[in-house]
Structure formats: C-alpha cells, structure tokens
TrEMBL record:
Protein name as it appears in the record: N-acylneuraminate cytidylyltransferase
Keyword Transferase part of the UniProt annotation: yes
Entry superkingdom: Bacteria
A GO MF term: N-acylneuraminate cytidylyltransferase activity
Higher taxonomy: Bacteria, Pseudomonadati, Thermodesulfobacteriota, Desulfuromonadia, Desulfuromonadales
Originating species: Desulfuromusa kysingii
Length: 232
C-alpha cells in the first residue's frame, strides 16, 4: 500500500490561510491533491491538518482526513518529519502499515503527476529509501559572498573568486515539493540526503518558493504561462 501525506496546518503566518488561499482558480491545496490523484500511485491520499476548514476543502477535492492533527504538532516550530510520522501511525491503525509514503506539500502547485510516478519508480529500486524533489542553484554557490554590517563584502570561498562559472561543480537544493520514502525510513528518522537517498532533479521553471506576496504573484504568472504552453 502506498499513501500520500499532505501536511496542511491552519496557522500560516507569512501568507495567512496559504494552504487554502485561491491560486489560479482553486484552493492551493487542491493542486497537490489533483497531482496525487492523477498519478495513480496511491491507495490513500491523506491530509494532515488541525484546521476544520482545511479538512472540509480537502475532503471536497477528494482527499481523506480520517484524523485531525494534535495541537502539539501544529505550531510554528513543528518540523515536517514528526507530522509525517504521526500520520503514518494513524494510517497504520486504520489500514495497516503502508510500504511507501510520499510527503507531498500542500503549497506545491507546480508538482506534476508524471514526476510523482517517475520518482516512485526510483524509490522502489533496491537499496533506495528516499527520493526527493530537488533543483540546481541557478548561480554557482562557490561565488557567493557575505556583506558585513560595515558594508564591505567578503567571499565565502575566495579560492573560487576567479574561477569561471562553467568550471564550477553544480550544486542543488531541496525543491520542497515531495519526498518519497519507505514507511520504515520515515519512522526511523533516517536521513534522505544519504547513500540510500536519491535526488529527483526538476527544471527550475517548475520550482518556486511561495512565502511572500511577491512570491505568490510570480508563482501565479509562472503557472498561467505553463498552462498556456501545455495547451498550445
């Protein structure tokens, strides 16, 4: 059995009610639910929330909310892993222990069902415990510098200050869309960035953090443009 777990607490501060704020015609969370449904990968698509309105919207769009998240796992400082592990244990009580779990963020409207399928195929390979979305940094991180309070800059890695960017090793970051893993790897709190993890690399045009009003505007413009290209 495979399950998707979509964490969606009600107390978003930077963009209030972000999980259910309308994004290109639907509540934000609806896009993640749809991608999970379209992938065909899951017996159960579970939304973990502490908020009744989010639960109602998730149910309307076809996800399951068979339990509510406890308050101690819904504050500003709660990490994702305890939320996922709580959901796995609750699912185990209801349906039995799943084999594979996909933590799918509720604020990832660019997630594609085809990427969920392709990354699932990777996580089922022998010796693999995790596959997670990632993206290359757009500019070499070796050429980064700090700026002190006095105003002067200083290289983080001065040995690379005159190296051509094309000669520098690419670096990658978490794309914050999805994390496939075995249920036991999640429960045992194993690290995803490890020899048993695999990075599923997404193109940069499908990756956008949405933490501010400016982020939101940019993301909607990107999303609308991609939809036009898909229809052309």
């Amino acid at each position: 059995m495979n399950i998707a777990i979509i964490p969606a607490r009600g107390g978003s501060k930077r963009i209030p009610r972000k999980n259910i704020k309308e994004f290109c015609g639907k509540p934000m969370i609806a896009w993640s639910i749809k991608a999970a449904q379209d992938s065909g990968c899951f017996e159960h698509i579970i939304v973990s929330t502490d908020d009744e309105e989010i639960a109602e919207i998730a149910d309307f769009y076809g996800a399951e909310v068979p339990f509510m998240r406890p308050p101690e796992l819904a504050d500003d400082h709660t990490a994702t892993r305890p939320v996922v592990n709580h959901a796995i244990r609750e699912v185990e009580k209801l349906y039995g222990m799943p084999e594979y779990v996909c933590c799918l963020y509720s604020t990832a409207p660019f997630v594609r069902s085809t990427d969920l399928v392709a990354s699932y195929e990777k996580v089922t390979n022998p010796g693999v415990e995790y596959v997670f979305s990632s993206c290359a940094f757009e500019y070499p991180i070796q050429r980064a510098f700090r700026i002190y309070a006095s105003g002067f800059p200083e290289w983080f890695s001065p040995q690379y200050c005159h190296t051509r960017s094309q000669d520098l090793e690419p670096a990658y970051h978490d794309a914050a869309q999805f994390y496939w893993g075995t249920a036991h790897a999640f429960i045992e709190n194993r690290e995803s960035v490890s020899p048993n993890g695999r990075a599923y690399v997404l193109p940069s045009y499908l990756v956008q953090d949405i933490d501010t009003g400016d982020d939101w505007i940019r993301a909607e413009l990107m999303f609308q443009t991609l939809n036009k290209l898909d229809r052309s």
